[in-house]
Amino acid sequence: MKGESSLTRARITYFFRETFRAHSKDEYSEFLTRGLGDNKRGIAGTYPWLYVRVFFALFMLFTVNVVILRITGNTLYVPTVTLLGGVTFTIPFMFLLTELYPKRDLSVVKLFGILVIGGTAACALTQLGYGVIRLNNPWYNAIISGFVEEVSKALVAVAAIMIMKNKNSYACFLIAAAVGSGFSVIEDMGYLFYYSDMVAAKYGDIRDTVYLFVDRGFSALCTHVLWTGIIGWAYGFGKGKYKPLCFVFLIGSTLAHVCWNLPLEDWMHSTAVALCTIVTVVCNVVAVRKSLFTTMTNEYIEIMNDNIIREAKAMGERMRFTNAANLTFALMCSFLAVIALALCCLPIGMERMLVTYSDKDEFIAVVEDGYKLNADWDRKYDPDGKNFEERYIDDGDGKRLSYCVQEVVFDGYDGTYYYGYYIGADGEADAAADSISLELESLASRIPCVEYAFGDETEWVFEVNETDYSSYTYNEDGTVSAVIDAVAFEGYDLLIALVASAVGVSGACFVILTAFSIKLRRVRDEG
């Protein structure tokens, strides 16, 4: 028990050393050339470290470009924000999974080629499936999307595994995960581009772009990548007597995807997502660990454990302070980047902002300012009713009524309604009203009834709310995104707190880094 505890502490120490120490060009070259030329044999035996650097670089670049887009509103930065936002989480995660693979028989270059080509092929198959099977019911759409997307990714993943001809179950997992990563990147870039181009560049409202970056980024770590990866692992592991295992995990991934997309209430949806995440992560961790122990011989594990303890103990004081300084600098930059993104989300200097409503009914309720209104276009002309307004024409036989407006008050509905009708030569009106307007006591002018389009459906709406909703979009998931006038910024306490935090963190890290520098100089002089 004591030996296991010592080994665990040594592993953690060794992990941080490998992650944050300076790495040579040869180490970069060794990782990037695995599976190519003479670098195909043996076990790598190193702890993951490159994924942290990739994430840090992408996250910093995304933050800088978001700040530029927020300040300038230059649409030229939308593609850059879209690209960086789509890859910042997924690509480093793929690097991590690849670094965990101990053998050198799988090319990193080919793996990321599969990510691009396989992800594109999976997206193409998915759109083909959507073209054949499409329903407007959100519950059916959740089932269809889960089935179509998982089957499409699985077909491409199995094809890629067969082309690569690698029989190792963890290698099959990586190949399939690469297909899922490519699919996830393309999908995330689509969402980010839509919201960045529609609102961020035009009105300076970057909130949805940042929200999607975080939401889609973190969800990518437990959705498409792992859902497809576990199918690939099952295919590689079950080639013998466990052949049905691949279909079992395909069904499981499809069910997880369907549960993730179900249009449930907030707490129910959060519960379903949490359960899907737990099940997905646990299954993948168990599969990866099993594959790692199968890949690495017991003899090599013992040698590696001895090396870990020996190298961890041999790690000098200078190396520890260097690693700590690197970690401090990385944490400082990351924290400042988070504060910069938070500041970009504050409505400072914004003229317009984007608001997303859960469905068209919520959007209509806001446009109609909560009033209970009735747009009865089927109301017939009442020849015995009182005409509020009348228009006559002279057709040669004398004047006759050609158009009239009737005033109506409905029980249970707010306001007074005015229906316009054209009257024919025979004195009969058209079957239905030609126009409807509404008069409310709170407003001086009448409100016309306007037709709003929501996909293939239309609704007639009274524009009671004076907020400008002329620009709105009905999304495929049933939500409605509307551009409205931005509210006046009042959160100066939050602004002060964010700026003070940035200054405080920068100052504290500067002091720590200075102390590390002095300590390292003393250690160097003593050595």
Explain the overall architecture.
- This protein has 527 residues and is of the alpha+beta class.
- Helix content is 61%, strand content 11%.
- The strands form 2 sheets. The protein has a 6-stranded antiparallel β-sheet, with helices on one face.
- Distance separating the two termini: 36 Å
Give the structural class.
alpha+beta
Low-confidence stretches: none
The number of helical elements comes to 16
The geometry reads as elongated
Helix and strand element order = HHHHHHHHHHHHHHEHEEEEEEEEH
Strand arrangement across the biggest beta sheet: 2-3-4-5-6-7
The percent range for helix content is 55-70%
Query: Main sheet, how many strands, which sense, barrel?
Result: 6 strands, antiparallel
Average pLDDT figure: 83
Share of β-strand residues = 5-15%
Topology:
Elements: H1 2-20, H2 25-32, H3 50-72, H4 78-87, H5 90-100, H6 108-132, H7 138-164, H8 169-203, H9 207-220, H10 224-237, H11 245-261, H12 266-295, H13 298-314, H14 317-345, E1 352-357, H15 360-367, E2 387-394, E3 399-408, E4 416-422, E5 435-439, E6 447-454, E7 457-462, E8 472-474, E9 480-485, H16 492-526
Antiparallel strand pairs: 1-9, 2-3, 3-4, 4-5, 5-6, 6-7, 8-9
Features:
6-stranded antiparallel beta sheet, single chain, 527 residues, 61% helix, alpha+beta, elongated, 9 strands, 3-stranded antiparallel beta sheet
